[in-house]
Amino acid sequence: MTELGPILEASLTFAFVVLSLALLLCVYRVIKGPTLPDRVVALDMLVAVAIGLIAAIGIYTGFTLYVDIAIALALVGFLATVAFARFILVNAERGASQPNGTASREQTAVEERAS
Amino acid sequence: MRTLIFRTVAPYLSTLMIVFSIFVLLRGHNEPGGGFIGGLIAASALAIYGIASGVAPVRRAIYFHPMNIAAFGVVLGAVAGVVSIFVGVPFMTGLWIYPVIFGVEVPLSTVLFFDIGVYFAVVGTIGSIALALEERDEI
């Protein structure tokens, strides 16, 4: 760990506290979220907060390597969100084509929003 | 997906991801990174481009069939090991040369070529799986 000034140290502590709270709120939304899109947006937010946390840890420990990890997570985390969005789209179209099919509660909620 | 913003951004994003994957691949010998994780990032780039604008443009863009790319990677890895025969050391021993290009010493090794082989094998395999899965329900 490198030597940090008092201002930087206070800012880091503040950032850690705020980011941890944000992580907890995101986890709450993932568990509680009534519909699938809510959970997907919460997961995307979780990735964003994790990127911020990794960057803060990088400043705290002084390893520049953490920045590369944050870049990789930012690039790959976007793929997960896009894949989930596509999954929701495909499910909604399938549910619309066969109204008496095995559409779950979440899928019908998606259709209600789309209509 | 029929979204204008995503379809416009996706080519630039996948280009950025492939450049980053090559950076991770080349850095991999002395620092964290390497062929496997670089290949995974490149395969994610192919997947994003495939989701945005359909699978056919991706297949046209990478020109070769993904399985051919994977086979090329495996052969490249094996050839990088075979080079040590000509020096008389055990199979897959790392051999280094230090050519000076434009006044800069560039360390090259058979290990690097093995890593590039791993990169191509992973891009081919994961890319093939991702494209096959995306082909199933095109929107």
UniProtKB/TrEMBL annotation, chain B:
One cellular component term from this protein's GO annotations in UniProt: plasma membrane
Matching Pfam families: MnhB (PF04039)
Entry-linked InterPro entries: CPA3_antiporter_subunitB (IPR050622), MnhB (IPR007182)
Segments passing through the bilayer: 12-29, 35-58, 70-98, 110-133
UniProt keyword annotations, A-Z: Cell membrane, Membrane, Transmembrane, Transmembrane helix
Domain of life the protein comes from: Bacteria
Keyword Transmembrane helix attached: yes
Membrane topology: Multi-pass membrane protein
Domain spans labelled Na+/H+ antiporter MnhB subunit-related protein: 5-126
Subcellular location field: Cell membrane
PANTHER family: NA(+)/H(+) ANTIPORTER SUBUNIT B, NA(+)_H(+) ANTIPORTER SUBUNIT B
Name used for this protein in its record: Na(+)/H(+) antiporter subunit B
Organism annotation: Georhizobium profundi
Higher taxonomy: Bacteria, Pseudomonadati, Pseudomonadota, Alphaproteobacteria, Hyphomicrobiales
